[in-house]
Amino acid sequence: MARAASAPEVPVELLDGRVVASHGRRLEVEDRAGRRSACRLHGRRLAAVCGDDVRYSPPQAGDDTGLVWEILPRRRTLERLAGNGRAEAVVANLTQLVAVAAPLPAPDWFIVDRYLAGAAWAGLAALVVFNKSELGIAPEAELESYEALGYPVIRCSARTGPGVAALAARLAAAVSVLVGQSGTGKSSLLNVLAPEALAVTQEISRATDEGRHTTTHAVLHRLASGGDLIDSPGVRDYAPPLPAVRTIASGFVELQAAAGGCRFQDCVHDAEPGCAVRAGVAAGTIRRRRFDSYRRLVTLAREFEARFPERRGARPRPPVR
Ligand SMILES: Nc1nc2c(ncn2[C@@H]2O[C@H](COP(=O)(O)OP(=O)(O)OP(=O)(O)O)[C@@H](O)[C@H]2O)c(=O)[nH]1
Ligand SMILES: [Mg+2]
Ligand SMILES: [Zn+2]
Predict the structure, then answer these.
(1) How many A from CA of 291 to the centre of ligand 3?
(2) Which domains, ranges and CATH numbers included, belong to the chain?
């Protein structure tokens, strides 16, 4: 009589899926047909973020969660610089970053600049969305300066509707993430673009009993108008993993363009003679606030280099020019 073989550790049939929500070790995974199921990670060594492509076994009869066995190599990833000096994935396999600002809370343009620089280093397309525009207090000079740099800027209102169609058109062929300060209206925009997402927002706020629609973890939604949109929790501050100090200007298109005119090839636009970048700032062709953003990132990079000298080789390289 044949003995029953002991169950193999890895199920024979694994499905390809994508992580559409990640909350610690609890995940939601979507299969190719768009069906979603709750999953856990198999083993302590695995770590997944929203957007990850995975191989998983869906919940079996009697189970309420499936198991993720493997995380496939990531393509473009939005990362953040963690306090320990390491790069930490925030969202995987996306193509576009949408930096959302609003008149309320008062915009922190340094955060926007750091997201835009991070997008450039990660090879992501980027745009700026200014929400709550129906309040009629848009900082036009700031928004126009981003437009002059070549960033699409969409002024919109999740509450009253203008600009939402233009945003939908920008999202149609992309996998995008909404990022920015808390309270700028990222989830509200998602709810307008994907009305079925509203239920999710309400569920979360009821579950945590916060009474507010504050996002706690990244969630991906397919938009009926095309494209995938990931809503992410608001931040107080953000920094991308930083390349070497002398290449940080590559995250700022106008500084990068001017740097070609600096006397020294490795100019960091600090106090070097013949610096075309500082000359541009003095002449008003480069916006001083953007230069300040750059300087703050240089300071941060130096601080991290001093604290974590062993991480030097691990930093991302700036895009090839
Ligand atoms: N006036 C106005 N208020 C808006 C608009 N969009 C969103 N709000 C309000 O702004 C507040 C914050 O909106 P959320 O969508 O939760 O903001 P969020 O960016 O997702 O916030 P976090 O999840 O904390 O990052 C809510 O009270 C919204 O009703 C808008 O277009 N106009
Ligand atoms: Mg939110
Ligand atoms: Zn210079």
Answers:
(1) 11
(2) 15-71 (2.40.50.140), 77-231 (3.40.50.300), 245-311 (1.10.40.50)
> Does residue 224 line the site of ligand 1, with CB under 6 A?
no
Show the tokens assigned to 184.
């700028």
Q: Average of pLDDT values for 8-24? A: 85
Neighbour tally for 102: CB within 10 Å? 25
Q: In this structure, what token pair is assigned to residue 148? A: 């002059």
HSE, CB side, 13 Å, CA atoms: give it for residue 149: 27
The DSSP secondary-structure symbol of 248 reads G
Give the burial class of 28: count Cβ atoms within 10 A of its Cβ; 0-12 exposed, 13-18 middle, 19 or more buried.
Answer: buried
The mean predicted confidence, pLDDT, of the chain is 90
Measured from the Cα of 158, ligand 1's closest atom is 31
pLDDT above 90: percentage of residues in the chain: 80
Res. 31: pLDDT tops 50: yes
Among 55-69, 73-87, 194-208, which range has the highest average pLDDT?
Answer: 73-87
